[in-house]
Each structure stands twice: as C-alpha cells, then as structure tokens.
Amino acid sequence: MTVQAALIAGTKVLAEAGIDGAPRDARLLMAHVFGIEPGRLTLVMPDPISVENVGAFNDAIARRATREPVSHILGFREFYGRRFKVTGDVLDPRPETEILISEALERPFRSVLDLGTGSGAILVTLLAEQALAKGMGTDISEAALAVARENADALGVGPRARFVPSDWWNAIEGEFDLIVSNPPYIALSEMPDLTPELGYEPRMALTDEADGLTAYRAIAEKARHFLAPRGRLIVEIGPTQGAAVADLFLEQGLKGVRVISDLDGRDRVVRAQVPNAHPRNDGK
Length: 284
What we know:
It is a single chain. The chain is an alpha/beta fold and 284 residues long. It has two domains: 3-66, Orthogonal Bundle (Helicase, Ruva Protein, domain 3); 87-273, 3-Layer(aba) Sandwich (Rossmann fold), CATH 3.40.50. It is built from nine helices and nine strands. The protein has helices at 3-16, 22-34, 51-65, 70-74, 98-104, 121-129, 142-154, 214-226, 242-251; strands at 76-79, 82-85, 111-115, 134-139, 161-165, 176-181, 227-236, 255-261, 267-273. A seven-stranded mixed sheet has the order 5-4-3-6-7-9-8, sandwiched between helices. It has a two-stranded antiparallel ribbon with strand order 1-2. Helix 1 packs across helix 2, helix 1 runs parallel beside helix 3 (51-65) and helix 2 (22-34) runs antiparallel to helix 3. The protein is elongated, with a radius of gyration of 21 Å.
C-alpha cells in the first residue's frame, strides 16, 4: 500500500464519521506519523507505507473518528507561531485568542498576570513577545499548571514565568502592568449544543455551570487592587457577552472600556484600564 492509498482510506473513514475537514485532518495525522510538516506530505505520497506506519495512522484515524481533537492525538497545538503542548487537562489554544494577544501587545509592559492560565499559551506568548517582561500564571488545576510550566520551559521563558495554584485572586500579591484572562464563559444552557470535541477538554475551563459571567464578576471585583496605575485588564469573552462584561468593568470604576471584535465581526475581547490613582489612595 502506498502512502496515498492509506491517506485516501483514512479520509474516507473520517468523512463517514461525519468529521468536517476530513481530508485536512487525515493529512495532519499522516504527516505526524512520518514526522514531517504537512506541506511535505506530497513528496512521499507515491512511496510504500510500512506496516508500522499504517498501523499508527489507522490508530490515529480511529481516535479522530470518535471526535477526539486532532491536537490531543498530535499532543500539540499551534498558537501565535509557536507550538504548545496540550493534554486533556487544558483548554486548546484557539485562533480567536490571538485577538487578545494582539491587543495586549499594543503597549509595552513589564509585568503580566494570566488568570486561569491553562496551557500557559497566553502568558508564554506574551513573555516571548515582550523580552523584558516577567509574568505569573494561575490556575486551580495543578495538572494544568504542570503543562503550562512545560510549555514555558520549552519556549524559553521559564525563568521569567511563575505558575501558582490560585482560585482567581486568593493567592495573588503585588501589582501588574497587565492582567489577562480567558476564563470559562460558556453558559450551562449552551453546553448541550457544543461540538463533541469539547467533551475531551476540561469542563471547568469551558463553563461556570451558570450564566457564563461568574468569572468576569470575580475578575472585575478585585482587578483594580492588583493593577498598577494605568495598568490594563484584557479578557476574552463569548460573542454575546460584550455589553455585559463591559458593564461589569465600568461598575468597578475601570476606564477606557472597549469591546473588540474578531475577524468575523463577533465580540471577542473586552479591554479596560485602571485610572492613574490606585484604589488604596483615592478614597474608594
């Protein structure tokens, strides 16, 4: 059997399982088996495929047919030009989150806090892009923090990153120029409509088991106490949450509140800034 024949057969299995983008996923899995970039797969298409490789490919196809995410089969996900390890203990980094990264990089910062860091993709990316900055990532999951530490070390920012177990603010001290978060924002009522692939990701990273705004209330309540003067708060949101999250930030005295859309025109990020005076010194 040639590589091409095996690829065609695998693509058919995925298509019959109802996988959107079956040809793309099959190519990614085949390239992974060969340890090459997907763009180079064409070069080996006419070649015979070994028994070992066809077995590994078929195993990967079988896993994908059950709707296991490709990233979990590969063990990594590309984000902002870098490769991040992912497991079932962390949320997959998604392209939409790059909107948050771009907004954060609009201004320099020396210190950054990532609340609910998961894989560490946001914090690690920001530190990699801002060479003089130091940062802290928090999460209530020790397993997620282990993945984040591994990603930080693999991408060369480990010495500038600290990872701390914390339930939002309870273990946080000090002030930060920038606070970022991609918290669980899917409402409980929306969970039954999600794609089966999300069942392989940690539920607590997806939903607050309520209205989807619980995390934003917690973040808004104390953000001013941990932001340096003129420090910024930037969070990712669900596409219907822009006005609600903006109002939460305004209620806490944050300024410059703005809702930012993604490339599809959907609300994706809310940013805000603390006034020049620190809340401990302005009588509030």
